[in-house]
């Protein structure tokens, strides 16, 4: 079997180090220098000829994170790497997955094309905004789920006897239903109406939440406007408490301020994106062990699905 090399992009090194520690292997040696105008020049400082190469880099803002990943993939391809996998814990631009109005791009498809053109042989990611994005690729996609990590965290830290799961919008019903099914609890959903992006005009709760400890589940938190509004509406309906659980802490704009001022007692997120600020309300759980196991199973040609048998 060919050797394996793990490399990290600049802004995902905190997670890559955890993955490498769980894998019991050091991160590969590379240098990313910049010209005076900001143009990047990555250099892989060790041989990757014939190796299984894994590049770990989330593609959150700025766009330099994506460009850096593309350049690293190209460098490995030109250095005769045997098999290149892009490990993208948070896949940016996934929310633009269709033409919902005239003259807009399908950005997720464009990013898929760019990764494949650069020379990637496989994609490993977590909790895509829409499952069907896997169809944008003509290469294998390992779509990891954060549910095993999140479920274990809930079991270890909460009395679930009074818990009710909730989706902050109709698009997240499947996710809320999965948590409810696994933990044998009920779920409700919120229905929202937007006048424009990141601005909610109206929200209602579909279901009974009175006296319950409600956990809102979602794939990502951007400005946190939807979650905070949902928490407000749920508490107004008589809930005992509301907390949120999401995979990707995008947390842009006034997200931290919104969370601090909200009715949410706690926000639980994964470490696919680094936090930009500290908040006593935000708890981060690690995905490093799950990614390390998935990388090992990929290298050894073993099942990925087996990691999610709950």
Automatic annotation (TrEMBL):
One function term, GO molecular function aspect: ATP binding
Reactions it catalyzes: D-ribose 5-phosphate + ATP = 5-phospho-alpha-D-ribose 1-diphosphate + AMP + H(+)
GO biological process: 5-phosphoribose 1-diphosphate biosynthetic process; purine nucleotide biosynthetic process
Class of enzymatic activity (EC top level): transferase
UniProt keyword terms in alphabetical order: ATP-binding, Kinase, Magnesium, Metal-binding, Nucleotide biosynthesis, Nucleotide-binding, Transferase
Enzyme Commission number(s) from the entry: 2.7.6.1
A GO CC term attached to the entry: cytoplasm
Superkingdom of origin: Eukaryota
Cofactor: Mg(2+)
Pfam families per UniProt: Pribosyl_synth, Pribosyltran_N
Domain Ribose-phosphate pyrophosphokinase N-terminal residue range list: 4-119
Pathway(s) it belongs to: Metabolic intermediate biosynthesis; 5-phospho-alpha-D-ribose 1-diphosphate biosynthesis; 5-phospho-alpha-D-ribose 1-diphosphate from D-ribose 5-phosphate (route I): step 1/1
CDD domains: PRTases_typeI
Family: Belongs to the ribose-phosphate pyrophosphokinase family.
NCBIfam families reported in the protein's UniProt record: PRK01259.1 (NF002320), ribP_PPkin (TIGR01251)
Protein name per Swiss-Prot or TrEMBL: ribose-phosphate diphosphokinase
């Amino acid at each position: 079997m060919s050797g394996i090399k793990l490399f990290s992009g600049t802004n995902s090194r905190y997670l890559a180090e955890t993955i490498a520690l769980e894998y019991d292997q050091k991160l590969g040696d590379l240098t990313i220098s910049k010209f005076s105008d900001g143009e990047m020049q990555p250099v892989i400082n060790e041989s990757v000829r014939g190796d299984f190469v894994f590049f770990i880099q989330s593609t959150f803002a700025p766009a330099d994170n994506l460009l850096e990943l593309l350049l690293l993939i190209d460098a490995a391809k030109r250095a005769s790497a045997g098999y290149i996998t892009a490990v993208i814990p948070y896949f940016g631009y996934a929310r633009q997955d269709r033409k919902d109005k005239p003259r807009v791009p399908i950005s997720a498809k464009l990013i898929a094309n760019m990764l494949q053109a650069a020379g990637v042989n496989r994609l490993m990611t977590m909790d895509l905004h829409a499952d069907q994005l896997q169809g944008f690729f003509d290469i294998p996609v390992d779509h990891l789920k954060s549910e095993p990590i999140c479920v274990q965290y809930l079991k270890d830290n909460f009395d679930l006897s009074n818990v009710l799961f909730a989706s902050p919008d109709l698009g997240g019903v499947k996710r809320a239903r999965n948590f409810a099914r696994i933990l044998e609890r009920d779920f409700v959903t919120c229905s929202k109406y937007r006048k424009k992006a990141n601005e909610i005009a109206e929200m209602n709760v579909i279901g009974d939440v009175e006296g319950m400890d409600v956990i809102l589940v979602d794939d990502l938190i951007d400005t946190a406007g939807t979650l905070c509004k949902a928490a407000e509406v749920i508490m107004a309906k008589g809930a005992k408490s509301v907390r949120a659980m999401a995979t990707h802490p995008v947390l842009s704009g006034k997200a931290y301020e919104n969370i601090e001022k909200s009715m949410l007692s706690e926000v639980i997120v994964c470490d696919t994106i680094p936090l930009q600020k500290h908040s006593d309300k935000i708890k981060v759980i690690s995905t490093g062990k799950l990614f390390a196991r998935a990388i090992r199973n990929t290298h050894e040609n073993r099942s990925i699905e087996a990691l999610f048998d709950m």
